[in-house]
Amino acid sequence: MSKETDRFLAPAGQKIRLKDYSTHYDGDTGKKVGKATLTAIKEKLSDYQETLYAENSHSVLIIFQAMDAAGKDSAIAHVMSGLNPQGCEVHSFKTPNASEYAHDFLWRHYIALPQRGKIGIHNRSHYENVLVCKVHPEYILNERIPGYDEVKKIDKNFWKARYESIRNFEQQLTENGTVILKFFLYVSEEEQKIRFLDRINDATKNWKFSSGDIAERALWKDYMAAYEDAITETSTENAPWYIIPADKKWFARLTISQILEETFKGMKLKYPVLPEEEMAKLEEYKRKLMGED
């Protein structure tokens, strides 16, 4: 049975065209009902998190990718606000440092993976290496990969191999118990302009704006092409991409929370059941404690 959230799924093995997806779709629930639903789902997510920790067999990796001002930070803050911080880690990846460049492109992301029983959130991720780096292939030269000492050598075969590395990386993770969810917050160019102007006009938001944001905005078409390629090449049955309409932040948050709820429900998590002898000891301990009165 298909779900409402299936409309946001990027089908595995199919060519993705972002023009087939909406940036402004907001369903039929309305903002007020949507916010109330989000609050209810957050309580359920907290329960699922506790069961995930107790079962200690799986981990969950949640990846957020988007253009600037699409709402990644606020989505993480709102949707995950009900989770226990002890079982959830957020990693925001910036430009690689010297140590990170001294390793392969997946290394810094691998060491940031969540351990069993925990939830990991990657705000930007290993996908920057086929998004930003594809728009700016000169960045690849910083990796000092043998045979790639000139931009002109970074060809289709290079990107094909990099997509394959990502698919293999994620397959290895899923085979070992990590559930992967990848969200592309799809904001329109018009809405980004509005949010940039808001950051400029509001003194409390000036710190969020960078002159580099305008330079990257000028490359919008290149970025959309890079996202289409990346999603097409790496949306798989075990590690799917969801293309989330992000022009209306409340709806993006609601949709992400619904997908998380559906995913946790499908995992069929259970609290561990103690062996009979251990259960018998519990009854003995209970009698002793009751006898202390």
TrEMBL record:
<dbReference type="InterPro" id="IPR027417">
    <property type="entry name" value="P-loop_NTPase"/>
</dbReference>
<keyword id="KW-0418">Kinase</keyword>
<keyword id="KW-0808">Transferase</keyword>
<protein>
    <submittedName>
        <fullName>Polyphosphate:nucleotide phosphotransferase</fullName>
    </submittedName>
</protein>
<comment type="similarity">
    <text>Belongs to the polyphosphate kinase 2 (PPK2) family. Class I subfamily.</text>
</comment>
<dbReference type="Pfam" id="PF03976">
    <property type="entry name" value="PPK2"/>
</dbReference>
<dbReference type="GO" id="GO:0006797">
    <property type="term" value="P:polyphosphate metabolic process"/>
</dbReference>
<dbReference type="InterPro" id="IPR022300">
    <property type="entry name" value="PPK2-rel_1"/>
</dbReference>
<dbReference type="InterPro" id="IPR022488">
    <property type="entry name" value="PPK2-related"/>
</dbReference>
<feature type="domain" description="Polyphosphate kinase-2-related">
    <location>
        <begin position="31"/>
        <end position="268"/>
    </location>
</feature>
<dbReference type="InterPro" id="IPR016898">
    <property type="entry name" value="Polyphosphate_phosphotransfera"/>
</dbReference>
<dbReference type="GO" id="GO:0008976">
    <property type="term" value="F:polyphosphate kinase activity"/>
</dbReference>
